[in-house]
Amino acid sequence: MNIPVLTFFNNKGGVGKTSLVYHLAWMFAEIGLSVIAIDLDPQANLTASFFDEDTLLGIWPDKPSDTNAHTIYQCLRPLVRTGEILTPHTKEITPKLHVVPGDLALAGFEENLSEAWPNALGSNDLYRPFRLLTGFWQVAQMAAKAHRANIILADVGPSLGAINRSALIATDHVVIPLAADLFALQGLRNLGPTLTRWRSDWKKRRDNWSTKEFRLPGGKMHPAGYVLMQHAERLKRPVRAYSQWAERIPEEYQRVIGGDGGVDACLARLKHYRSLAPMAQEARKPIFKLTAADGAIGNHARAVTAAYDDFKRLAELLIDRLGLEVSDQRVDHQIIPASSA
Ligand SMILES: Nc1ncnc2c1ncn2[C@@H]1O[C@H](COP(=O)(O)OP(=O)(O)O)[C@@H](O)[C@H]1O
Ligand SMILES: [Mg+2]
User: Fold this and answer.
1) Ligand 1 surroundings by CB, under 6 angstroms
2) In this predicted model, what pLDDT tens digit does every residue of 35-82 receive, in sequence order?
3) Does residue 71 lie within any of the structural domains?
C-alpha cells in the first residue's frame, strides 16, 4: 500500500510553506499520526528548522557515505552514476515524527531530472529515467514504510522547475499556502495550468511504462485547498486592502485550481504570530509548544494556546478531507498473522 503524500506548493517564496509543513508535521504527530516530513527544497529550510548546527554537520558531512545516507540527495546520488537508490536513514524527532533531511546539493539534481523527463517517453532504457523521476517518491515511501507512517508531508522550494515537477508527480494531495495580495492571484494563474500539465504529462509517461519493474506514483496532485496567510506587513495596511484581495481568492482558486464542489477550499486563515515565530525558531520547536521557559508568558502564553487550537483544527480538517485514519490499530491488525489468533 502506498502512503499518501501531501505537498505544500506555491511557486512564490515567503508565503509560509516551510513554516506550515513544520507546524503541521508536529501537530499530526501530536494527535497520533505517524509522520514523515521530507525536505525537497534545495534551500533546505525545513531541515534547518528541525536541527541544530551540530546535527546538520553530521547530516551533511564533507564526504557522504553510501552506507549511511540521510538526506534525500544522498539517497539518490548513486542513480546519477550507475547505482541504486539508497534506503534513507531518517532522523527521529519524536517516535511519531521522522525527517528525511534536505540537501543543498539537491540543486545539482535538477539537470538529471530535466534529461530524464523526455527520455521517459522513449522506447528503450526506461528503467533509469523512471527511477530518477520517481526517486523522491521511492525514498519517501521507503521512509514511510520503515516507520509505519500514515502520511508524508513534503516541503518544496518556490519554483516550477524539474525538481518540483518530480515532487509533484510524487504528490497525492496539494495544499496551496497563499498571501492575500496581487501576487497570490497572479501566481495562481501560473500554478493552475502547471499542475494540469504535469498531471497529464505524467500520465502519458506512466502509460509508456509497460515493464512495471517497480511501482510508480499516481501523480494525482489532488487540490486539497488553500491556507491564507495573514502577514504582518499586510496587517499594517488598511484592512480593506487585505480583505479586497482575500475576497477575490475563492473565485480565482476555483477557476484555476478547482477542487471538490460544495466544500470550502479555504482550509484556514493563519494569523501572523509576530514575535512568537522567531522565539519558536530559537527554541527549535513549534510555536504551539512554547513554554514560559522559552519566554512565552502573559499575552504570549495566550497566543501559544490559540496557535495550538488553530493548528489542531487545520490538522483535523486535513485528516478529514484526506480520509486519513488516526489510530494505529488499522496498521497493527495488518501485521498480525491470521494463524496467531
Ligand atoms: N504564521 C506566521 N506567523 C509569523 N511568521 C511566519 C508565519 N509563517 C511564516 N512566517 C515567517 O515568514 C518567513 C517565511 O516563511 P516560510 O515558511 O519560510 O515561507 P516559504 O517556505 O513559503 O518561503 C519565515 O521567517 C517564517 O518564520
Ligand atoms: Mg520554504
Assistant:
1) 13-19, 45, 229, 270, 272-273, 277
2) 999 999 999 999 999 999 999 999 999 998 888 999 999 999 999 988
3) yes
Residue 289 falls within a domain, yes or no? no
Query: Does residue 89 surpass a pLDDT of 90?
Result: yes
d(Cα 330, Cα 341) in Å, to the nearest integer? 16
10 alpha carbon, closest ligand: 1
103 Cα to the center of ligand 2, angstroms? 13
User: For a pocket test of ligand 1, which of 7, 12, 17, 19 has the largest count of ligand atoms closer than 8 A to its C-beta?
Assistant: 19
Interval between CA 316 and ligand 2 midpoint (Å): 23
Is 330 a member of any domain?
no
Percentage of the chain beyond pLDDT 70 is: 93
Ligand 1 atom nearest residue 274's Cα: 4
Q: In which domain, by residue range, is 213 found?
A: 5-276
Start-end of H helices in the chain: 17-30, 45-50, 53-59, 72-80, 109-119, 127-133, 135-146, 162-169, 182-207, 232-236, 239-256, 276-283, 299-322, 329-335
Which ligand is closest to the CA of 178, given by its number? 1
Closest residue by Cα to residue 203 from 255, 168, 162 = 168
Asked if 169 and 132 touch (Cβ cutoff 8 Å), the reply is: no
pLDDT at 231 over 90: no
Ligand nearest to the CA of 16: 1
List, for residues 232-261, the tens digit of each pLDDT value.
Answer: 555 556 556 778 888 899 999 999 998 777
Report residue 246 as a C-alpha cell.
Answer: 482575500
DSSP state of 3: P
